[in-house]
From TrEMBL:
It is an enzyme of class 3 (hydrolase). Residues 49-120 form the Glycoside hydrolase family 31 N-terminal domain. Residues 169-533 form the Glycoside hydrolase family 31 TIM barrel domain. Residues 542-630 form the Glycosyl hydrolase family 31 C-terminal domain. Signal peptide: none annotated. GO terms for biological process: carbohydrate metabolic process. Belongs to the glycosyl hydrolase 31 family. This is Alpha-glucosidase. SUPFAM superfamilies: (Trans)glycosidases (SSF51445), Galactose mutarotase-like (SSF74650), Glycosyl hydrolase domain (SSF51011). Keywords: Glycosidase, Hydrolase.
Amino acid sequence: MNIIPHMIKRYEFGQPVVDTGAVVMDVAPSIGEMPFGVVESRSPLKFKCGLSRGEMVFGLGENVRGINKRGFRYVSWCSDHACAGENDSSLYGAHNFLIISGSARTVGLFFDTPSRVEFDVGWTRGDELVVSCDEDGIDVYVITSEEKRKECALKDIVRQFRRMVGRSYIPPLWAFGFQQSRWGYKTEADVRAVVENYRSRSLPLDSVCLDIDYMEGFRDFTVSKERFPEFAALNKSLAEEGIHLVPIIDAGVKAEDGFGIYDEGRAGGFFCTTPGGDVFKAGVWPGLSAFTDFMREDARAWFGSKYKALVDCGVEGFWNDMNEPSLFYTDDGLKAAFRKIDDFRGRELDIDSFFDFTSVGGSMSCRLEDYRNMIHEVVGPDGSKKSVPHARIHNIYGAMMTRASGEGLSAILPGKRTLLYSRSSCIGAHRYGGIWMGDNCSKWGDIELEMRMLPSLNMCGFMYTGADIGGFGDSSSRDLVLRWLALGVFVPLMRNHSAWNTRMQECYAFDGGTEDFRSVLSLRYALIPYIYSEFVKACDSGDMMFRPLCFDYPEDEIARSIEDELIVGNEVLIAPVCRQNAGGRLVYLPEDMTQVVWKDCRASESHVGKGVHYIDVPEDTVVFFIKRGKSVPICGTIAQSTDKIDYGSLVRLGDDVPYSLYRDDGFTTDIDVAANTVELWA
């Protein structure tokens, strides 16, 4: 990937409180004013630029609304925000990269700061982008392209940005298998029952994720001896069946004298403090907890080393949670809430006071006052150490936890890729792990929301990602899980996950049998060689694996308006069904393509011309399309886990042209795309 230095310019606005770690390329600061827009305020930065009629705005990673972000206000402030709706301005990530694209210009903007940023993208004024920062010290990167065609300019700017922030995390091959998760698998017997139910029905499966139930009192890096008495033996037994256990790790460490992790962290000074120098504590799952100061290199190394206790039991994958960080309460917050409740005692509540009263409980969580009282030790750009309130660097906390975990696992298992994904993130975390899209809900609209996030996250470097299939925070229906699986077939992180108080939604949990679930899951395993190949190649080149149609067909006015279809890799177009009781859907094809219908674990092909078509898609069927002049490899025999995939059974769908297949041992950290790519003619 060739980068032309003068196509990336960096503009400094004050001294950053800390290096976010997002940018790995050395870009010298530019002298003079930014090439477009108006800097209304330098400290803190407020930037404005006009938006012409028809210009589209892409990016901002994990966020609500459409792929085109025009018409709303987005706030980069990592938030524990379950079951978000389209009017929620903050989710779990802070991804401050966007591209403005129209007939007169295509330009990328990256706002590198650990602090809160607001993006008013044509919300207050329809013809204006306004970016407002809360804190001093931000670097703004402006990325342009010498490519003349809009398609090439969009992709070129993404590649330049991705090169600037470093190569994306690549998990092991087994991480592309299907994962079954639930907050509520409480015992070894529960886990074995899940595996038995999948295996006995020939439903492919590679992983079972463990939520907080496996721990001893919700304490990090512990395993309940009562519920999982032989944890290492369980891992070994499941590995023989091609199954990996993937336990959760939370950001908060139980603040309990005698708990070894807490005692060690306190003695080493590895936790965030109060302004007075005591260990900062807040309530989460185990009660009052301490929070590692991930801004410090020594604290990151200490926390990362603790994964060894579980790795020694045979674990090779983890998911990090609650790392915004989410705070249920602090002692100060509780006292303030009780004082407020006392103010209402004995009063007759009118409409205003009643709503004030009902909001008291929620007012304790993730308070800005508590973030201001949570103190980090940071090293400034000049090498000096200083104390900084968490509120000023909030958005990089989860990313630094991911970095600690990723670096720790690399040290524990050198030369071997491990699975790691996280809930909270900012740009920079993409080099150390993936993310799942947070605590979504069992809503049909959340399928479309995942589709809209995929290209936006890919732009920002997050390639290993996906939403909880079926939805986490509500009870799902059989058809919703099936339709969501049909999208998940193409998504790198394919996980079914739900909360303890919802309906069971495993692929065997519904009436009506499992033949349709088996067929959909079988397509995933037939496509894993292709998905893995496209994923690794995209990480290596800085390309997006998921793109809106307008990135490949920018002059096609119909394609520019479509957000419920995506290009996957270099060959495939997908158009999932996202409506309940729909037996099919309208699909727009920007060119002639091969239609593939997957049903009963078999593929059939037909030619379909450019234009709008109504496509029948029964619930037991997945339909996708292959571009003209392209082919896609699929396995002729279906494995039950990734370690059983038969590359010798690969056949090609689509046109009679070769496919460039990347393949490695599934674990190596020495990724060499050129040396491990072959032309597949089978």
